[in-house]
Write the structure tokens for this entry.
Amino acid sequence: MRRHYRLRKPRDFARVYDGGVSTASRLVVVYALPNQRDGARIGVAAGKKLGNAVKRNRIKRVIRAALHELLPRVKPGYDLIVIGRAAAGSTKTFQVRADLERVLNRLKLLGSDANHG
């Protein structure tokens, strides 16, 4: 994910956690907060309860791969945090993508992709 699409600073994460709305599914939790930018920024997290660094990094890698496919459809003007759950570690990318798509639709943050019809 390109740098201008990423949430990186702890204060940005804290702002979204504190002021954003959230919704959850079996594989991910998504927090969303409107921002004053032209595009969406996304942060990916996996807590220490999920296991060691290898397991947490795998969860984040799978989520990033799923987001890469959905990013062109995410509505601009939002900061998002996607938190992986334990089940995401043993799941294929396409399943995480479908789950993430459902959550983003629930938040009304997913539009149609101009390239895919």
